[in-house]
């Protein structure tokens, strides 16, 4: 037996957003983002680990030559029911964001606790602007006031994996997004 907690086996993966649907949506978001920032200094910040595939596709679809890329990783602590309410950086950005436009790129926004933490930390550093892009916005699960400025898809229910999203670190590599049935 490994030291990891036993995992409820996955019974089925049901396709939700295909690789083709995602590619189309990423190009649409990139066009909106390009139209907004043009060539103004922009720091695109990937939220690890889940954001890494969306981020890599999105930034390659942008045309801003004054864009810098950086990465954060967040950890949340506490009891299961309140798990995402105490959030810390396990890795912060290395670039100074003061005076620059900042675009956070996340896989999914659910309760909003970790994004509320990240946005308040970043806001204190006085960026020129601060916006959030997420592949998936589970808006109905929001517990705090966090707005997704660029949402790939909206979803009301289901636990999804693929395109960066995991179930206990599995399935991040799938090219499309699937709903997990346990
Ligand atoms: N999938 C993966 N991670 C998540 C989800 C989901 O549906 N919701 C919040 N974190
Ligand atoms: Mg996850």
Description of the structure:
The chain has 182 residues and is α/β, with parallel strands linked by helices. It has a domain of 125 residues: 3-Layer(aba) Sandwich (Rossmann fold), CATH 3.40.50. It is 22% helix and 33% strand. The protein has 3 helices and 9 strands, in the order βαβαβββαββββ. It has a 6-stranded mixed β-sheet with strand order 4-3-2-5-6-7, with helices on both faces. The longest helix is centred in the N-terminal third of the chain and has 19 residues. It is globular and about 50 Å long. Magnesium ion binds next to loops.
* Bound chemical compounds: hypoxanthine, magnesium ion
Gross geometry: globular
Mean pLDDT: 94
Helix content: 10-25%
Q: Find the structural class using helix and strand composition.
A: alpha/beta
- Report the end-to-end length measured between terminal Cα atoms: 21 Å
Task: Kindly identify the CATH topology of the domain at 18-73 and 90-158.
Answer: Rossmann fold
Beta-strand level of the residues, as a percent range?
25-35%
Reading side by side through the largest sheet, how are the strands ordered?
4-3-2-5-6-7
Q: What is the chain-wise order of helices and strands?
A: EHEHEEEHEEEE
What would CATH call the architecture of the domain at 18-73 and 90-158?
Answer: 3-Layer(aba) Sandwich
EC number: 2.4.2.8
Family: Belongs to the purine/pyrimidine phosphoribosyltransferase family.
Keywords: Cytoplasm, Glycosyltransferase, Magnesium, Metal-binding, Nucleotide-binding, Purine salvage, Transferase
Domain Phosphoribosyltransferase: 21-167
């Amino acid at each position: 037996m490994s030291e990891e907690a036993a995992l409820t086996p996955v019974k089925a993966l049901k396709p939700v957003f295909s690789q083709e649907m995602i590619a189309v949506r990423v190009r649409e978001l990139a066009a909106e983002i390009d139209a907004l920032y043009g060539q103004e200094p922009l720091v695109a910040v990937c939220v690890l680990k889940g954001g890494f595939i969306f981020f890599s596709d999105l930034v390659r679809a942008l045309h801003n030559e004054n864009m810098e890329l950086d990465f954060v990783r967040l950890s949340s602590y506490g009891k299961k029911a309140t798990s995402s309410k105490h959030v810390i950086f396990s890795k912060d950005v290395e670039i100074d964001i003061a005076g620059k436009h900042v675009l956070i790129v996340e896989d999914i926004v659910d309760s909003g606790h970790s994004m509320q933490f990240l946005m308040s930390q970043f806001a204190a550093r006085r960026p020129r602007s601060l916006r959030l892009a997420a592949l998936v916005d589970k808006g109905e699960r929001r517990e705090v006031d966090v707005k997704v400025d660029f949402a790939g898809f909206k979803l009301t229910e289901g636990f999804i994996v693929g395109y960066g999203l995991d179930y206990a670190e599995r399935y991040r590599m799938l090219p499309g997004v699937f709903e997990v049935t346990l």
